[in-house]
Every structure is written in C-alpha cells, then in structure tokens.
Specification:
Blueprint (H helix, E strand, L loop, with lengths): L8 E5 L4 H12 L3 E6 L2 H12 L5 E5 L5 H14 L5 E4 L14 H29 L2 E6 L12 H20 L5 E7 L3 E2 L2 H5 L5 H5 L3 E2 H14 L3 E3 L2 H10 L4 H12 L2
Parallel strand pairs: 1-2, 1-4, 2-3, 4-5, 5-6, 6-9, 7-8
C-alpha cells in the first residue's frame, strides 16, 4: 500500500460534487494537500474553505476541462509554482443520452474532449513527472459502460472504453517505475451525472441498484492505494461485466440498448 505523507499532493478534477468531492474529503482527512479543479466557482470556493479548515493546503482552479487548453494551463501553472503532484484523479466527465444522429455535435465534442483528451493529457504529463521521481498514483474514472457498446449513449460508452483500455496499457508501460494507473469503473451512482445525461427515465436508472458517491469514492480510494489496475464497484456490476465476456455481442448490445434508452 502507498505510504501516506503530509507533504504529498493530490490533484482531483471534477471536484465540486459527487465522487470527486468525496475523494477530496478522503484525501483531506489523511492530510494530503489538494489541487482541485471544477467549473463552478462558487461551489469550488465553498469546498476549498471546508477542506482548508482541516489544516491542509488547497489550491483550486475554476476551469472548463472540456477545453484541453485549460488542462495545459493548469499543468504549466503548477510547474511554475513548483507543486509536484503525487496522486492524480481524472474524475471529470459527463455523458449524453440520445440517438447518435440527434445529439448536437458541439455538445458531443465537449464530452469526448473532456472524457478522453484532457484525461490523456493529464495522465501523460503527470505520469512522466511521477516516473522521474520514482513514485505516483493515477486513478482514471471509467464506467461499467467501459465494457460493452452502449446504444443511446454510444459516444459516452465508447469514451469510457477508451479510458479503460488506455489506462491499462499505460499502467503496463509504467511497470517498474513506481507509478501505477488505476481505473475505477462505477455503475449507477447518485451524483449529478444522470441529470446532465438525461438518463433519469432509463431502465438503467429506474431499475438497477444505486450506489452513493461516498461508497464509490471509498472503493476507488482503496483501489488506488493498493495499486490495483482496475476495479468494478458493486457485486451486481461485477457479475454484469463478467457475463459480457461469455455473451454474444449482438445480445450484449441489445440488452445495453434496453437499459440505456430513455
């Protein structure tokens, strides 16, 4: 297990709510310094005050990471400040539901840029710095949608498949450097995700069991600290992902369509 040290710093994206906020609280309780990134300034300022009260240093950036140039600005600013990132959590992301041909391209481009391009940039740059120091942990947030096609959320599920495959590949490349990349794959979680994605009327949301953001964050934190390559939260989700390996692709896609269609 990774050693916890007061001088270590964790960067968390999408930190203003849901899983990202709960992860920030977990790191803060263990006296990690924090760099938090989110779009909502008022909420981020409130969280910064809350977590700073525990005696740690909290630096926050109000940025829209669907523009990868903002990720570059943050990375360059941290370097200029001499702040080293020991733990990186790429949690920021969102989904869109609907028929692919009906989803506006500008909105989908934002989603793909945030879910894949910014995640890739942060992973690449911080992993390089971590490897040069001989230690680092990165957690990229995927989904149970990482494991199969997702009709009516085609782009989202494809982006999360990318997250899983990219993270596993980079984790293997980094073997022996002291840097480990973990992929957290949650199922249905009670966050603002489903409001944004407009999936509240889907079978997935109405029929499948829900996890709290805190439960998923605690599970993911444990994976990261233990140096696991990936993990699927929840027994039902684990069984569902396992069954995909042995089911015909057409059947898997048909079932996914039934779950995701709103």
């Amino acid at each position: 297990m990774a050693q916890l040290n007061q001088s270590q710093t964790a960067l968390i994206t999408g930190a203003s709510g849901g899983i990202g906020l709960e992860l920030a609280r977990l790191f803060a309780r263990r006296k990690f310094n924090l760099v938090l990134v989110a779009r909502t300034q008022e909420k981020l300022e409130e969280i910064t005050r809350e977590l700073s009260a525990s005696g740690i240093s909290v630096l926050s950036y109000t940025r829209d990471l669907s523009n990868p140039a903002n990720a570059e600005d943050i990375y360059n600013d941290l370097r200029s400040l001499g702040i080293e990132i020991d733990y990186l959590v790429n949690n920021a992301g969102f989904g869109i539901s609907g028929t692919e041909t009906d989803i506006p391209w500008d909105r989908e481009l934002q989603m793909l840029s945030l879910n894949m391009l910014t995640l890739t940039y942060f992973t690449k740059m911080f992993a390089s710095d971590m490897a040069s120091r001989g230690f680092g942990r990165i957690m990229n947030v995927g989904s149970t949608g990482s494991f199969q096609p997702g009709p009516y959320m085609a782009g989202y599920c494809a982006s999360k498949a990318y997250v899983l495959h990219f993270s596993e590949a980079v984790n293997r490349e980094l073997k022996g450097t002291g840097v480990i990349v973990t992929t957290l794959c949650p199922g249905v979680t009670d966050t603002g995700f489903h409001v944004t994605a407009q999936t509240e009327s889907s079978t997935m949301f109405t029929k499948l069991s829900h996890a709290s953001a805190r439960e998923v964050a605690e599970y993911g934190f444990g994976l990261m600290m233990k140096g696991k390559s990936y993990g699927v939260h929840g027994l039902f989700n684990k069984l569902m992902v396992f069954s995909v390996r042995f089911s015909p692709r057409n059947l898997v896609t048909q079932i996914a369509a039934g779950l995701l269609k709103s």
